[in-house]
Task: inverse folding
């Protein structure tokens, strides 16, 4: 009987191709301090300042330093160079990063803003005050809708812009799905037994939402937000800090805390491990993906940002120049 050869899992480099020094990168599970924008610029919150690293040129620029406040979240608008910054005092600032100009400061929250998510001109903010605000950045009002649902800090927010659904995760172990600008959740999932920071919508399958639980939970759970049901779950063995779907393949990457501080690439739906990447000496609290979907950057309280070539290119796109060289050259964001 002829046996077809087993397909070998593709090789993923176990070494980051670039390491950046990031002094003062906070070791705080509830913050979201790293985001990679469509213009190929990485925004990073360090202490009271925001720095920008241009992935094309490797140049670092300081965007701003807050007066008597700290940066608790950063998020790029989907298309363009507007960057939203959440602060420790509960403010949301919007900056034109290209012109290095602050456009406006928005109020509403009375505690730190640890999560931000854009859906075109709607900017959504989540806070330790347990509230979620939808803001129309074109309108003069401070906010458009107030969402009351979580009983503790809101630590994860992700829009599914295709379907107009927002997923929110809280320190109350709840995952909620909100439809459009509705002030009542469409679904409330109570499956996790620890804080839900890690949230990601599949770009390949409608209504497929992945979420990850903290130290007391350790699971990645897959939800069907069309039916409001749980599809599958896997115990990862450690705190789940972030999740992101590959844009180019049916794979998912998760980053972890205690005890291995690892980064894992999984095949979906089998959830077989494609690769496990180690190197961070603190929990891997920050994760962002390059605009072309081939590279991820991870950040940790060890004050490093590490760049990994985790995913292939999208089928049908040509191979272009290497994204920054293969040597782990140490530069400083400052």
Result:
């Amino acid at each position: 009987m002829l046996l077809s050869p087993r397909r070998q899992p593709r090789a993923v480099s176990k070494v980051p191709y670039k390491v950046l020094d990031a002094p003062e990168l906070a070791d705080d599970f509830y913050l979201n301090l790293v985001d990679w924008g469509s213009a190929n610029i990485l925004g990073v919150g360090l202490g009271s300042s925001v720095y920008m690293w241009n992935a094309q040129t490797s140049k670092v620029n300081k965007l701003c330093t807050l007066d008597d406040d700290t940066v608790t979240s950063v998020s790029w608008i989907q298309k363009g160079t507007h960057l939203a910054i959440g602060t420790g005092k509960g403010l949301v600032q919007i900056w034109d990063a290209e012109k290095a100009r602050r456009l406006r400061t928005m109020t509403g929250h009375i505690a730190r803003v640890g999560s931000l998510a854009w859906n075109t001109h709607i900017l959504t903010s989540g806070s330790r005050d347990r509230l979620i605000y939808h803001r129309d950045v074109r309108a003069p009002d401070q906010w458009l809708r107030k969402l009351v649902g979580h009983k503790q800090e809101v630590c994860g927010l992700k829009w599914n812009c295709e379907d107009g659904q927002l997923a929110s995760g809280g320190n109350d172990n709840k995952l909620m799905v909100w439809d459009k600008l509705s002030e009542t959740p469409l679904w409330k999932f109570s499956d996790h037994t620890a804080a839900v920071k890690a949230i990601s919508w599949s770009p390949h399958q409608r209504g497929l939402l992945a979420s990850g639980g903290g130290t007391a939970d350790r699971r990645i759970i897959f939800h069907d937000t069309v039916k409001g049901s749980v599809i599958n779950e896997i115990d990862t063995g450690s705190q789940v800090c972030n999740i992101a779907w590959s844009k180019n393949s049916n794979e998912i990457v998760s980053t972890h805390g205690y005890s291995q501080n690892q980064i894992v690439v999984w095949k979906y739906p089998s959830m077989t491990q494609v690769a496990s990447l180690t190197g961070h000496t603190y929990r891997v609290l920050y994760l962002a993906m390059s605009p072309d979907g081939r590279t991820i950057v991870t950040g940790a309280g060890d004050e490093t940002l590490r760049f990994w070539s985790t995913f292939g290119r999208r089928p049908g796109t040509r191979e272009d120049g290497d994204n920054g060289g293969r040597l782990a050259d140490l530069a400083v964001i400052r």
Observations:
- Residues 199 and 211 are 4 Å apart (CA to CA).
- DSSP finds no helices and 29 strands in the chain.
- Confidence is low (pLDDT under 50) at residues 320-329.
- The two ends are 62 Å apart (CA to CA).
